[in-house]
Amino acid sequence: MFRIYSYILFIFLLGQVGIAQDFNKEKLDQYFKLLEENDKFMGSLALAKHGKLIYSKNIGFADIEKGIKINDNSRFSIASISKTFTASLVLKAVEQNKIKLDQKLADFYPDITNAEKINIEQMLRHQSGIHNITDDPVYGLYFTQATSQTEMLKVIKTAGSDFEPGNQTAYSNSNYILLSFILEKIYKKEFAEILKEQITEPLKLTKTYFNLKTGENSNEVNSYMKLIDWQISPKTSPSVSLGAGGIVSTPEDLIKFAYALFNGKLLEEKNLKLMMEIKDGYGLGLFSVPFYDKVGYGHTGGIDGFRSMLFHFEDGNYTYALTSNGSDFDINEINIAVMSAVYNKEFELPDFSTYAVDSSILESYVGNYSSEMLPLKIKVFTKDGNLMAQATGQSAFPLEAFEKDKFRFIQAGIELEFETSKNEVTLKQGGAAYLFKKD
């Protein structure tokens, strides 16, 4: 089962930083060399100023099994960055008088719960209350299968509503799946053709597309998850993810798209401002992210083993895009490093030194742990001589020792610090710490 994840850069506002006079390319090259040498990241990234590339990097394999390396033509699923494209298409349709933001969902799909109360803007802002179907366990039974529009509509209808429209905000892929179908209705064309006519052809995005048949383009990369070794991930059918997460692209094309969008070359100014108007964390297919005193706008995504980032910072007119098909590292740390290089801020090179732990000692950490601070349990166990952990309802992940009694899962920024004499472990993530006791 996969979920379309949304990742946000969490960076505290610590003070003023100036725009770099000299982009720190050398240190960034060192940074990515360490990631590559330690097999921590596979993917591509690009950085532009005023729409012109100033840095790019390709690391790892498009197909590990065939030994095909990633290059400038490698295409990645961009996951939920697709929503920015879909929101742009909806606003293009508004400009063409094909739809209105206050128009009701009932005009298109009256059988959806609360359709008569839900308008298009609420769907774009995740304020519709429509349940997020990717949160449900049953999702894992069909996400790789070609699924018809009728079947998808039935799934969304059956899932129902989580709250009254407009009363709350909750991220839901279902909103953008429905918006994809609505676009097809109003244009009387398939989503792929609408995307091509309205965005990719006018902007000359030759490596960006939506295709219901995955893998037909030889430049499309596989995605991978790393437990002990890289393992190929099941592939989500675009007929399921649609405009919520099914578009394929490259960092360079994403930069072209974002530069055009944020510099008024795609939408009218009033509609761009509406997209960037953040309410309860969301704009229309966008959210904002702070970097010290700077603010970027864009989106992130995760689907199967793919992770993606796209942000535009008006201060300096910088645009940054990352697409990954496999990561054993906290991608947020990569984002911080890149933007630190841009804005002349110090950043640390990653340290992948490990701490050897005898297998007999690993057994002392094994057990089931629970916490009064979080409503989940953590199972710690060994597998093939490695320490593993698994939280309630989540996949197991490997733990890497870096000091005595201290382990980490870099990909998610998790640290576990054991105190075996007290049968305790402290979980640290995102600056927070949670105490767990062995059952």
TrEMBL record:
<protein>
    <submittedName>
        <fullName>Beta-lactamase family protein</fullName>
    </submittedName>
</protein>
<dbReference type="InterPro" id="IPR050491">
    <property type="entry name" value="AmpC-like"/>
</dbReference>
<dbReference type="InterPro" id="IPR001466">
    <property type="entry name" value="Beta-lactam-related"/>
</dbReference>
<dbReference type="InterPro" id="IPR012338">
    <property type="entry name" value="Beta-lactam/transpept-like"/>
</dbReference>
<dbReference type="Pfam" id="PF00144">
    <property type="entry name" value="Beta-lactamase"/>
</dbReference>
<feature type="domain" description="Beta-lactamase-related">
    <location>
        <begin position="44"/>
        <end position="328"/>
    </location>
</feature>
